[in-house]
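During the first year of the project, the team set up a workflow for recording each protein of interest as an amino acid sequence followed immediately by a discrete structure-token representation. This format lets reviewers and collaborators read both layers of information side by side without switching files. As required by the reporting guidelines, we include two representative entries from the current panel. The first entry is reproduced here exactly as it appears in our internal archive.
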Amino acid sequence: MSDNQISNNQNKNAKKRAARERMMAERAAQERRSRRNKIIAITVAAVVVVGGGVGAAVGLAGGSGSGSGSSASSGKLVVPKNATGTDGTVIVYGRATAKNTLQMYEDFRCPVCDGLEKSAGTTIQSMADNGTYKIEYHMGTFLDNNNGGNGSMNALAAAGAALNESPTMFKKFHDVLYANQPEETVDKFGDTNYLLELAGKVPGLKTTAFVDEVKSGTFKPWAQKVSDAFNSSGVSATPTAILNGTKLNVGGTTTSAQWTSAVNQALGTKK
């Protein structure tokens, strides 16, 4: 074999070794990426499983979870009448004399909140109406951040205009929003005209003042304050229900009977 043939064979072998090394390196990199993605998926799944149903997890996409917060917080803070708490960030429904307090943490774009509303909403309200507890609503807007858009913030600001009318109007509008909730990733609540259309389903809500407040975004700075308070609450998913400090084991498929049982257990009472 000539020197040229030996040299050519050595070059070919070197190229083959280099190719194998590149393939092995790429395969190792793919395996590392696969392991990392599995770990992320498992972590996310662990975070969002709550109370017998899958809840919407706060801040998985990063950021403050306040959606269009920079624009929402730029105006003058106007707190709706009937709001309570620091900066009026708490919305109370029910009898003021009720001895027990149910804290509900929700986001208007949360599909699991919608599921709970549809499966046990009537019972949740009736127990507030009969004085078993009063409800403190703590509303978040983190799904705007997670999914894009400003529907949660826009809906909350419109709900503030309803609260400015009365807590009863807020509750009725709250229920209408869930009854007509779009898919989580569809930002239909970002359309103010759609919110006004839904407000028309609540008799007596669409006063001139209400329409003007919704169109002008009067309560958007307030909605940002409410969102900020939610983000600081330590609650990690919606819906979360806490009765007198006890977290209820409920989720999007909780029935009325299961809700009543959870409440009775938390209060230490019998059916």
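The second entry, processed by the same pipeline in the following quarter, appears below.
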Amino acid sequence: MIYLIIGLLIIALTYVDAITKDRKFSKYTSLFVLAVMLLLVSLRYQVGTDWDAYYDFYKGNRSTDNVEIGYALLNDLFSGLGFHYNFFILVLNIFALTLMFSYLNKNGFLLCVGLLIFFSDLFLYLNLSGIRQGIAIAITCFSINFAINRNFLPFLGCILFAACFHGTALAFLVVYFLPRTKMKFYVIICCAIGFLLCNLFLESISEFITLYTIKSADFYTSQQEKIDNVMNLFYVGIAKRSVIICVILFFGRKMFDLPNSHFFFNIYLFGFGVYLSSYLISPDIGARLSSYFTIFEMLLAGKLLYAMNNINNRVVVVTLFSLMAIYKLLGYMSFETYVYQTIFSTL
């Protein structure tokens, strides 16, 4: 229930944000929302699919060494110093959410709608469970300004740093080479051919990647994505990812007058292509790889609302995003591993 309460709070703030279009209000409101999210993730106890795995790793009960060096070093440092596990989680999420705020603040216009999208999906999926990839995505988001300014070495450094927390972050390197302007027809054709080849390649290495992320793969097949339901969830995923594209094409063409909008839109489309070409091979691959790119929906939604002059249209769009967020939150609330309890319940 706490997820829905926080979601409704963010929705209310998003309506105010969209109606007023006050960027200063948006900035301070987003800081408040991030503080609430930080408390939620840091005070949890036995919440998230991967809680037991990460907690056991912190306590030294290691059933696997398949953990990237960056996370392992931090884990061993905090554990060796005797810090409580929740303090470790707090520090990690201060780092990750600070990078996310920097990413939004530097590139966004209205921020609350982006945080609503983030909270209702990737935040719950990663920050409350897949911690390492949550950190990796925050770092890759932070790196986008180096890509925008074509500073390749700092961009590469960020990606390599992110890969120290989750190896899949290396996929984000392709962003540097994506078009910054509206894609021409021949570029779209080349991308389509590329995704077809990617589909064949991923099919050949899917078993390796699934073994690399075995715990998440188990989660998909045993809880979220029953084998006989994969196609249905694939279509739901397509529908959810198509909403921002349809809304932009219908309401928000002026959005492309704002800085870097074409670039962010191309990144999002690339992530959509990754999802389409890989999800049916392995839901784990499709969800993990595409998330590095589809997270740019956070920026696109805020830019879209800011570019819309008609207040009624802005309210309609916020309502659409709000309904999607509630749908996602209700989904997480149905999972036993996401039943929320705090560390105070252990006292």
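For the second entry, the following points were noted during internal review. The chain has one domain: 2-346. Confidence is low (pLDDT under 50) at residues 210-227. Both points are flagged for discussion at the upcoming steering committee meeting.
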